[in-house]
Specification:
This protein is of the alpha+beta class. The chain has one domain (about 1-135): Alpha-Beta Plaits. About 40% of the residues lie in helices and about 20% in strands. It has helices at about 10-15, 20-30, 45-50, 60-65, 80-90, 100-105, 120-130, and strands at about 1-10, 30-40, 70-80, 115. The chain has a four-stranded antiparallel sheet with strand order 2-3-1-4, sandwiched between helices. The longest helix has 11 residues, at about 20-30. The two termini are about 15 Å apart. The structure holds adenosine-3',5'-cyclic-monophosphate. Its EC number is 2.7.4.6. Major role in the synthesis of nucleoside triphosphates other than ATP. The ATP gamma phosphate is transferred to the NDP beta phosphate via a ping-pong mechanism, using a phosphorylated active-site intermediate. It is found in: Cytoplasm.
């Protein structure tokens, strides 16, 4: 069965001009692009997106980074899209991410780890609603 997942291409990806390359990897895999937008997060949107991390030691730096410049938000769709994207991204810490994964190939530090992908069906539904209306999904 087909699932939707939310992917963010973080400010480091835009700065390093890697958006096309990362999106291309997901498309080549066979995931369908269902929605796409460029935006700059407000601190309020960042708090909504990362609400499970509020209060953690890295939270202030996380919000500062994710609001530091434009990002690209995507909804990708396909069978097991959530797990597929997580596998393609690799572990959160790029040090642990094997070559061949996105973080393994493009990132060195946890705070600038290129992409975000929803971790469950519940998170995907909640996160997609932060970025897209039903009319913006195709
Ligand atoms: P992401 O998948 O976007 O979800 C939370 C983000 O917090 C994570 O990627 C990292 O970029 C960032 N982060 C920074 N420090 C940590 C940490 N110690 N543990 C988990 N996430 C961290």
């Amino acid at each position: 069965i087909s699932e939707n997942t939310l992917v963010l291409l973080k400010p480091d990806t835009v700065l390093r001009k890697l958006c096309g390359e990362i999106l291309s990897r997901f498309e080549r895999k066979g995931l369908t692009l269902t929605a796409l937008k460029m935006l700059k997060l407000t601190p309020e949107m960042a708090a909504e997106h990362y609400r499970e991390h509020i209060g953690k030691p890295f939270y202030p730096d996380l919000v500062e980074f994710i609001t530091s410049g434009p990002i690209v938000a995507l909804v990708l769709t396909g069978p097991n899209a959530i797990k597929t994207v997580r596998t393609m991204m690799g572990p959160t810490n790029p040090v642990d991410a094997p070559p061949g994964t996105i973080r393994g190939d493009y990132a060195t530090v946890m705070s600038n780890n290129i992409v975000h992908g929803s971790d469950s069906l519940t998170s995907a539904q909640r996160e997609i609603a932060i970025y897209f209306t039903d009319q913006e999904m195709f």
